[in-house]
Design the sequence.
């Protein structure tokens, strides 16, 4: 993997941000002060699960599987930013206020429009041959950071995250003219500073950038996988293939073409595969290893046709409603039940 915002081989790996060691979950409640109403809360639901990417001869294939760690977990799903570029947000994706019953942000739906325009482009003496500053990736990355900061301004209670768990991640996969396919991971850490008593200022730091495709010279060209939350991450699909997991072996033995796909992935030569066969293998494998309750998606970025769905995201559950206790506290009629075991980071 490569760090820094340059599309060149052997770039230095960026150090991961050090985060406070505390628990945060899919249904996260944070205390905040408000000039309008003290004690107002923000809740963030997580997009949690795994993202598996295969770069093949004629496409970039992206499969996602939800990890239903809480009742309100969101399915991580590719979002078309441009015809040949998608982003997948992991972590805090869906923000709302239970007290006002208003959605504050739905970052996956906003992502195509979240772009920062103040990124400076490094001047070149001649035509670009690749290896230029990846200002296009930075434009998307800083756009999401600015939106997260807008939300974070409302967080004035202490928010604790587990060690090495970022507030959010953005996986970007795309085709770049005169360069080819690439895969990036952008990681967003959060920092809080105590002002007075239990009042905190919150800001989201600029993302760290790691490039996972193309791999370093001499490294295998095979599956790239990401998981959120990082704690207790599942065994990567490629590792399961190496260890001959029975669920994957059944798929491999079911058809000569499936065996061919598995062999090329193990040899690190995914660039020799075609999208049609690899898509079948990826879909079957993800279905075999997923929790029965997990929702899945599969998408492709074709070299010629750009973005398309193979398995689109399923319809989401109805919006959450106030519990009877919450409704009573706010003088409203109950509209349904909030999960009894929904964890809260509310600090009184």
Sequence:
């Amino acid at each position: 993997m490569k760090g820094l915002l340059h599309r060149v081989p052997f770039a230095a790996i960026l150090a991961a941000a050090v985060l406070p060691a505390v628990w945060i979950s899919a249904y996260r409640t944070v205390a905040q002060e408000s000039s309008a109403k003290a004690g107002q809360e923000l809740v963030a639901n997580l997009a949690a699960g795994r993202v598996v990417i295969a770069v093949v001869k004629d496409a970039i294939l992206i499969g996602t599987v939800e990890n239903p760690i809480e009742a309100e977990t969101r399915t991580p799903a590719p979002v078309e930013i441009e015809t040949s570029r998608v982003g997948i947000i992991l972590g805090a994706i869906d923000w709302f206020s239970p007290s006002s019953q208003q959605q504050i942000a739905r970052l996956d739906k906003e992502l195509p429009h979240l772009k920062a325009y103040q990124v400076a482009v490094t001047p070149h003496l001649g035509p670009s041959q690749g290896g230029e500053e990846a200002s296009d990736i930075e434009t998307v990355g800083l756009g999401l950071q600015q939106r997260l900061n807008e939300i974070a301004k409302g967080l004035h209670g202490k928010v604790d995250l587990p060690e090495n768990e970022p507030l959010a991640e953005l996986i970007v996969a795309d085709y770049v003219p005169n360069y080819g396919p690439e895969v990036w991971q952008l990681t967003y850490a959060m920092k809080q500073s105590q002002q007075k008593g239990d009042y905190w200022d919150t800001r989201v730091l600029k993302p760290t950038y790691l490039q996972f495709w193309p791999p370093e010279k001499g490294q295998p060209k095979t599956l790239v996988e990401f998981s959120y939350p990082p704690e207790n991450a599942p065994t990567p699909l490629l590792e399961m293939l190496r260890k001959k997991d029975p669920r994957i072996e059944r798929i491999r033995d079911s058809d000569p073409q499936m065996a061919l796909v598995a062999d090329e992935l193990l040899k690190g030569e995914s660039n020799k595969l075609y999208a049609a066969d690899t898509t079948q293998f990826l879909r079957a494998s993800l279905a075999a290893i997923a929790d029965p309750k997990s929702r899945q998606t599969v998408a492709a970025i074709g070299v010629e046709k750009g973005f398309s769905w193979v398995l689109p995201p399923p319809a989401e559950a109805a919006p959450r409603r106030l519990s009877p206790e919450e409704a009573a506290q706010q003088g409203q009629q109950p509209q349904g039940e909030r999960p009894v075991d929904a964890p809260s980071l509310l600090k009184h």
Q: What stands out?
A: The chain has a mean pLDDT of 79. The longest strand covers residues 85-97. Helices lie at 107-110, 135-152, 237-242, 246-253, 256-267, 275-289, 324-329.
